[in-house]
């Protein structure tokens, strides 16, 4: 092969610090736009983005010149900086330290899109903590073994 080709879909999820309900409907669109801009800055294509009061889900194509960790760090750091700079919410805004990032195949993209699109309905039945533990179990990860603790 004379050229390298990659297509890595990432479903990322991260929450507000201590899972505080800071992503209110009144500021959700603005926060989403800040996150979208940070992914553009990292040359990553954002396919889907949605949130509820205490966490966000993203589906994006990873830029092959970037690491997942550096993209997520940039998105979280720059978006929280802008949320605070623009005074979008009265409290100091901080994302929780950790995050989940799960790769998915092309055949699962539509399923992930739908999952992200229906967050409000989904979280009428399940808390973020329950959802996140389901992700860890589904992907063969155990929370405590991988440094996941309650409200870090």
TrEMBL record:
InterPro entries: Transposase_17, Transposase_17_sf. It holds the Pfam family Y1_Tnp. It comes from the Bacteria. Coiled coil: none annotated. Residues 5-119 form the Transposase IS200-like domain. This is IS200/IS605 family transposase. It comes from Larkinella bovis.
């Amino acid at each position: 092969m004379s050229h390298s080709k990659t297509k890595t879909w990432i479903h990322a999820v991260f929450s507000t610090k201590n899972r505080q309900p800071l992503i209110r409907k009144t500021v959700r669109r603005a926060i989403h736009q800040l996150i979208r801009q940070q992914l553009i800055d990292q040359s990553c294509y954002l396919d889907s983005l949605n949130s509820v009061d205490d966490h966000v889900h993203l589906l994006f194509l990873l830029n092959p010149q970037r690491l997942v960790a550096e993209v997520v760090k940039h998105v979280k750091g720059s978006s929280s900086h802008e949320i605070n700079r623009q005074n979008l919410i009265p409290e100091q805004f901080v994302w929780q330290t950790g995050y989940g990032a799960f790769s998915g195949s092309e055949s699962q993209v539509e399923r992930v899109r739908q999952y992200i699109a229906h967050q409000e309905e989904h979280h009428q039945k399940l808390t973020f903590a329950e959802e996140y533990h389901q992700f860890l179990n589904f992907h063969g990860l155990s929370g405590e073994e991988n440094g996941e603790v309650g409200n870090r």
